[in-house]
Amino acid sequence: MTAWITRRDPDGVAAEAAAVDPALPLAGLRLAVKDNIDVAGMATTAGCPAYAYGPKVSAAVVTRLEAAGAVVAGKTALDQFATGLVGTRSPHGALESPLAPGSVSGGSSSGSAVAVATGEADIALGTDTAGSGRVPAAFCGIVGLKPTKGWLPTTGVVPACRSFDCVSVFARDVATAALAVEAAADPRPSKAGGPVRRLGVPQTAVVERGCDEDPIAAWGALDLAGLGYEVVEVDLDAYLAAGDLLYGGALVAERHAAVGAFVDAHPEEVDPVVGPLIAAAGTLSASAY
To answer: Is residue 114 helix, strand or coil?
Structure first.
């Protein structure tokens, strides 16, 4: 299946990219945009054709990347309404990983990750509320960068959980991902204090509890201390419990607040897994939230 929901003519995109001022930081890079992020002149569907609308202006992050020299190549597939981590909950079909054909691509920003992994785009925008940017990046063998919440504006993004949504960036290397985030970021004074030398990592017991044999072996072979980093083990149990609230607690009510009215009114138009998840969130009371 294709990574794209709406794709501009690749030759036209290439010609436009070649004409970009080479002095710009993202000069000529082809940009894929997850289809819950607005691009003027292209429909935003959030992976549900019946939900489609035509934005008159682009999302702030898209406008900033274009100003930095990137050229929009099209809108990419996703788990419908950004609900899921698999890349299969879509009327456009399931997306498989280019890294491991026959396996899922991860989601919900599946199309953006696949477009970068296959070389059809140089950078891509996704969203990441509970892993929707980092999971497909890992499954497709590319870089997925989730900036700190609020660093990239979410204006022009169809919300999943508005209080927690983040725009994320995909690229094939860390340097390009960092350039894209810097170009898309809210202008603010830098607080950088030099290169990172102290890294927090999950406790080995947490990795062993949550991974299969091969990832555990790879984790054990990772020698960050040998690369010059100070490594600090972090107890993740509290973070994992908080993460469960996004789907297993009242925080999921924010998904119903975002698109629940549409889902309730069009049950036959939504994915059979996504629809009930969002509809059930509508039964949670404000006091529970």
So the answer is: helix
Cβ-contact 105, 139 below 8 angstroms? yes
State the 10-residue block means of pLDDT for the chain, 289 residues long.
94 98 97 98 98 98 98 98 95 95 96 98 96 96 95 96 94 96 78 74 86 87 90 89 80 90 95 92 86
Q: What is the 3-state secondary structure (H, E, C) of 6-31?
A: EECCHHHHHHHHHCCCCCCCCCCCEE
Q: Is 34 part of the annotated catalytic residue set?
A: yes
Select which of 90, 105, 108, 110 is catalytic. Answer: 108
Strand order in the sheet with 4-7: 4-7, 71-76, 30-34, 123-127, 167-171, 143-145
Angle (deg, nearest 10), helices 60-67 and 174-184: 110
| Cβ-proximal residues to 244 (8 Å cutoff; 6+ apart), any chain | none
The residue to which tokens 């290169």 are assigned = 195
pLDDT of residue 252: 84
Contact call for residues 39 and 33 (beta carbons, < 8 A): yes
The residues, any chain, with a CB within 8 Å of residue 263's CB and separated by 6 or more, are 81, 256, 270, 274, 275, 278, 279
Which tokens in the block code for residue 289?
A: 């939230």
Q: Residue 20, class by beta-carbon neighbours within 10 Å (0-12 exposed, 13-18 middle, 19+ buried)?
A: middle
Spatial neighbors of 176 by CB under 8 A, at least 6 apart, are 29, 122, 123, 143
The residue from 75, 132, 146, 168 that is catalytic is: 132
Using DSSP's 3-state secondary structure scheme, residue 84 falls into coil
Half-sphere exposure (CA, 13 Å, Cβ side) for 269?
A: 17
Residue 108 bears catalytic tag? yes
